[in-house]
Amino acid sequence: MSGHKGLDKWFKQDWVDIGSKKKGGGHKKCGRSKQKADAKRKYPKCVPAAKAARMTDSQKRSAVSRKRAKPQGVGGKPTNVKTFANRKKAAEGGYMGSFIDLTFPEGKGEYKRTGNPSLKKYYKSLGII
């Protein structure tokens, strides 16, 4: 019966809906009832309370919006999305900073682009940008 430890832990966790906050702080319990009050409530994104406490507001908004963007209950199955979105790597074009375009004054047609903003002051001192 050692294979049930993970499932036992899963059932014992306090699951909350990170898409709906309580007035006093924290989050509402996960799930919806058939009551009229819950019928208007948007589709929940549920995580354990411990994980919700560690998440930033932007991470919560991202997870909830990705969950609600997908069609819900397709084929009678619940819709699952990752709680944390995969980050793009810089090699895959995922660099989110600002690039500095460099055209060298020698007029040799050299053109370079750097994504390191800390080098901007250095390039300015050389008269490149």
Concise account of the structure shown:
This protein is an alpha+beta fold and 129 residues long. It is built from five helices and five strands. It has a three-stranded antiparallel β-sheet. Strands 4-5 form a two-stranded antiparallel sheet.
What percent strand? Answer: 15-25%
Provide the residue-averaged pLDDT: 77
Silhouette? elongated
Number of helices: 5
Report the span from N to C terminus. 68 Å
The secondary structure category is alpha+beta
The unreliable regions are none
Radius of gyration: 24 Å
Query: What is the helix/strand order?
Result: HEEHEHHEEH
How are strands sequenced across the largest beta sheet? 2-1-3
Q: How many domain regions?
A: 2
Helix content: 25-40%
Number of strands: 5
Described by strand count, sense and barrel closure, the largest sheet is: 3 strands, antiparallel
Reconstruct the topology from this structure.
Blueprint: H1 5-12, E1 15-21, E2 27-29, H2 36-39, E3 46-48, H3 49-54, H4 57-69, E4 100-103, E5 111-114, H5 120-125
